[in-house]
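User: Round two. Same drill as before: sequence, then structure, for each protein.

Assistant: Same drill it is. First protein:
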Amino acid sequence: MTNENKRILRLPDVKTRTGLSRSSIYAKVNEGSFPKYIKLGIRSVGWLESEIDSWITQRVQQSRSAIENQRS
C-alpha cells in the first residue's frame, strides 16, 4: 500500500466524493454496503481514500451494467 492509498478522508470529504449525506453513509456502513470507518480518536473517524475510490468505481460499474441490461 502506497502513501497515497493510506490517505484518510474525513466525513466532509467522503460526503463530497460520494454525494451521500451523513446519515446515508452511516446507514450503508451499518448494512455492510459501504466501507467501514477507522476510529481516529474518541469522537473522530475517517475512511481510507482507496476504499472510497473502490466503492465509487463499483457503483459506476453497477449503474452502467443496469442501464445496459435495461436496453437488452
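Second protein:
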Amino acid sequence: MIIDNKAVVSIHYTLTDDQGTQIDSSAGQEPLAYLHGAGNIIPGLENALTGKSEGDSLQVVVQPEEGYGLVTDALIQTVPREAFEADDITPGMQFQAQDDQGHVQQIVVREVSDEGVTIDGNHPLAGKVLYFDIEITEVREATPEELDHGHVHHEGHSH
C-alpha cells in the first residue's frame, strides 16, 4: 500500500539537528503510528512520506517553515519575577502558561535578571532545520473510527 491521505503509517525515526546531535528517536520503542493527512506530524515530514511504501527507508531534511515554524519574536518577552510562584528560577526551566483565550502553552525560561525573567513561548524546535532518518514499518487503511477521530487507535484502545 502506498502512503496517501487516510492511511495509518508506522515509522521508526531518528531526529538530529545541524550538528548531528540526536534530538529524539523511536529506537527501542514501538514505531510512531500516525494518520496521514490529518496533521498528526509536521508538514515537511508528512509531505516527504507521501507516495512511499512499507519497507522504504529515507532521509528527510525539514526546513523550519515545514517543521515547527520560524522563531516568533513576539513569543519572547520579559515578565516580572513575581509572575512565578517558584523562588529559584533558572534558565532552561519549563512552565505552562495560559493566554487570554485560555490556551495553554509551554514556555521556557531563557534568562533571569534583576529586571525580570525572559521567557520564550516558541516551540523548542522552532527555527531549526530537522534531519530525519526514517524506516517505514507499516502502512494500512485507517478504520472509520480513526478517520472520524482524526488519529490512530492502538489495539485495544479507542482513544
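The chain has two domains: 7-68+126-149, 73-120.

User: Perfect.
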